[in-house]
């Protein structure tokens, strides 16, 4: 992860609530990891509708929710494991009815009903868990919970520094969705440069990986995985569908 990354000690700490509580106590200004709403909005326009019920996981003190509500989104629930940041955000946005802030661990969202969100947006939160201890186990719990709270055909939009060799296997393990991959320039690495069109997904092989050579070596990009939940892919669902077909 870029801002403040590097040593093993800090890397492990990204997975801990205490690290984030301390960080948010010391640093109260708004901060957006990786990308801001302005650069993401064309992609959101492709997959989201203004009336959708949205869940922002690991919202931190990002301005993303505020910017989205200002741009017409009507119903955004934000969660974070840090009580410090959630209390601050509840105070800051008490006048914005479209924005709710709830302290919650993304690995255990039992107070949300299954199939209750049209989309889940994650900017940097799976990355945090992947930097902590028991990374794969925690990431799997998180992805299963996200899959559970999404409606059928709902989308999980994951904005990450993790390239497909580090993220696709995790996403595929959950087997709930079809995955498209978009890329966007890292603002800090290539200011003003535009090689990639965020609204055009990368061409993928049959195995779901980007066609080789598309990205080149060490591309200065963030990856955006758009995972569309597809209940018809579930084995039990497929069995019902096959049975129904056989009965016809
Ligand atoms: C890298 S920051 C990203 C913040 C924000 N999404 C952004 O884009 O600026 C990761 C956030 O995930 C939160 N987080 C870490 N583990 C979490 C968990 N298990 N459940 C919910 N939030 C978590 C942290 O408190 C932190 O706010």
UniProtKB/TrEMBL annotation:
Pfam families: Methyltransf_31. The keyword Transcription does not apply. One of its GO terms (molecular function) is methyltransferase activity. Residues 53-162 form the Methyltransferase domain. It comes from the Eukaryota. Coiled coil: none annotated. GO terms for biological process: methylation. Keywords: Methyltransferase, Transferase. Belongs to the methyltransferase superfamily. This is Methyltransferase-like protein 13.
